[in-house]
Amino acid sequence: MTALSDFLVTPAYAQSAGGEGGLLSAGGLMSILPYVAMFAIFYFLLIRPQQQKQKQLRAQLAAIRRGDRVLTAGGIIGVVQKIRDDSNEIEIEIAPNVRVTVVRETLTSVVTSTAKPANDAAPKAG
Q1: pTM of the model
Q2: Element (H, E) at 16
Q3: Which residues contact 110 (CB under 8 A, 6 or more apart)?
Q4: Backbone torsions φ then ψ of 80, nearest 5 degrees
């Protein structure tokens, strides 16, 4: 009979009644510290780089010009032929005389750009 009663005793029965003072005590803070550290690691290794990549892609899509080679979400590479300012559609040529209209958000990257970067100016002779 005692073996059965020992089995039914809850672990809470063995705890002390005094406690350590709650969450803001040193013991409570130490129990939360691993979770804070895990969140910081996830933020700096996963979340922040993804946000920076999205920001860079939005800047590339905003600066897209005629003649740029782009990659669509479906894996199709084409050359930008026409950008419609009044809508979010872009006409790209995927083969000679084959043009399709895509929505700007379906472009995943700009493969090559005809726009010249600002720091690639011709060096001054002299």
Answers
A1: 0.56
A2: none
A3: 60, 61, 64, 68, 69, 70, 71
A4: -70, 125
